[in-house]
């Protein structure tokens, strides 16, 4: 009976190992796709941010510092982030959508105080915000998928190198004991027949 139970557990462990291995392979494939997207978004965002920061530096140099700080501290629009989650291979990753609730007509400061370079830098950073949020969303998905791949890899390795070999060894031991008991019973039977 124990042998039958162990064989059933072994069959389940082998099937589970195959399923986890297939899941792991698919997660790695999806991970690489998302990682490529992350690299592309990061490169684009870094290039755009470098340009915006250069524009801010120019604006700051030609504008009085108190006026530039006040202008750059004022929000140009009220934006709300709506967060949901989507599942990628059983991993819940964030999905963020920006909703612009209130937008002002123009920029949030007086034009005589600020130069056109400042206007352009404020406009560029407001255009860049959705790309930065998308980048954050993709990077979080990459991190969550990487953690799940690592956990899944540990499970696969535990099944492959610990549980399945232990079950096979126990099954072999029980089979050997049953074979030994059967041979001993045959020898006893032959002795009994020989004495009679």
Structural description of this entry:
It is a single chain. This protein is an alpha+beta fold and 196 residues long. It has one domain: Helix Hairpins. 77% of the residues lie in helices and 13% in strands. It contains 3 helices and 2 strands; from the N terminus they run ααββα. It has a two-stranded antiparallel ribbon with strand order 1-2. Helix 1 runs antiparallel to helix 3. The radius of gyration is 33 Å and the shape is rod-shaped. The mean pLDDT is 87.
The poorly predicted ranges are none
In percent terms, what proportion of residues is strand? 5-15%
The first-to-last residue Cα distance is: 35 Å
Instruction: Tell me what the CATH architecture is.
Output: Orthogonal Bundle
Number of helices: 3
Helix content: over 70%
What's the mean pLDDT score? 87
Rg from alpha-carbon coordinates = 33 Å
Number of domains: 1
Class per helix and strand makeup:
alpha+beta
Outline: rod-shaped
Largest pleated sheet: 2 strands, antiparallel
Which helices and strands, and how do they pair?
Layout: H1 2-62, H2 65-73, E1 77-88, E2 91-103, H3 116-195
Antiparallel strand pairs: 1-2
Question: Could you write a compact summary of the structure shown?
Answer:
With 196 residues, this protein is α+β, with helices and mostly antiparallel strands.
Keywords:
77% helix; Helix Hairpins; alpha+beta
């Amino acid at each position: 009976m124990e042998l039958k139970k162990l064989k059933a557990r072994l069959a389940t462990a082998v099937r589970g190992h195959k399923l986890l291995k297939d899941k792991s392979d698919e997660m790695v494939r999806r991970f690489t796709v998302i990682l490529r997207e992350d690299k592309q978004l990061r490169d684009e965002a870094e290039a755009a941010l470098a340009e915006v920061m250069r524009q801010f530096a120019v604006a700051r140099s030609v504008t009085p510092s108190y006026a530039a700080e006040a202008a750059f501290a004022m929000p140009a629009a009220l934006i709300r982030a709506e967060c949901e989650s989507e599942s990628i291979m059983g991993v819940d990753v964030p999905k963020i959508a920006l909703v612009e609730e209130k937008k002002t007509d123009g920029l949030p400061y007086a034009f005589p105080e600020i130069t056109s370079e400042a206007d352009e830098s404020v406009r560029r950073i407001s255009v860049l915000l959705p790309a930065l949020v998308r980048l954050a969303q993709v990077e979080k998905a990459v991190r969550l998928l990487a953690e799940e791949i690592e956990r899944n890899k540990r499970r696969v390795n535990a099944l492959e190198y610990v549980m399945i070999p232990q079950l096979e060894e126990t099954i072999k031991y029980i089979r050997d004991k049953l074979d030994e008991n059967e041979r001993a019973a045959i020898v006893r039977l032959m002795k009994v027949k020989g004495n009679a």
